[in-house]
Write a structure and sequence with these properties.
319 residues, mainly beta, Porin, twelve-stranded antiparallel beta barrel, four-stranded mixed β-sheet
Amino acid sequence: MTRLLLSSLLLISFHAFAEDTPPPQGWSKAGTLGANLSFSSSQGVVGQTDGTSQTYGAALKAGTNYNDDNDEWRNSLSLLENTSKTPTIPHFVKSADELKLQSIYLYKYQNLPKVGPYANLEAEAPIFKGEDVRTSPQTYAVKRNGVTERTFNDSSTRLTDGFKPLTTKESVGAYWKPVQDEKIKVEARLGLGAMQIGANGQFSASSSPNSSGQIELTPLSDVNQVGLEAALNVKGKVNDSSTYEAGVETMTPFVNNKAADDTRDAWGLTNIEGYAKYSSHITSWAALSYDYKLKIQPQLVTAAQQIHMLVLNLNYSLF
């Protein structure tokens, strides 16, 4: 995957003739608070459970940036919270929960404004506890190294504590900005990265029962890795009311704390994070957006983590 990403970086070089748009000088800030909600009710509909479905969500995005002739420093905070209740699961269960902080510094050379060194810090975690909720009582089996430690019956079980798993990242390297036009901005990074995931004492649950009809609960362990980081981000405007952003970030851990019986090499343990977002403003305070997030962390869990969201956001500009 990292090799594919590096090839992609080369393919975007034909955009380099685009006219660059200089960023504003000095400090700048932006912040928005958004809310979304949906409500539906059904009664006597063929093939559908009677009852009401409700979804409530809130999103906060804020950031401060600094720019001058040689320095660019971007700081951002984002918070996403969604909770839902349906006729089959009659109490509220979180469907999205993410707090993320990022600070990235880029140094700009006067004679080479498109390339230079960077340093990046990130922290990400859910705020609230996580749980596995089923429509009816199930048999849960706690398994460690393939051996069942205990079983119990319930319709839900706690998986994670608040602010767990906590993921922190640090990286340094070189960036490249081949395009900084008003309608499209491209940024690529390549460097040395480290990642720590505090997950000891937490659990993941299988999506479906095993051959014995049990939902398997697998204990998670802390992850510590150092390796090659590569990232590509593209964002821009389709028109005055519509924007898009997409990107991918990988980290191949040549140094890691994998289990002694784990035979996967560094490439097999490569972490991948991808995202895509399209937003179209209906009014100055309302927008329809689609959000997709992909996270692959093979040393933590084997399954890919994915989130799709299509929401109508009501936004308020904080500053």
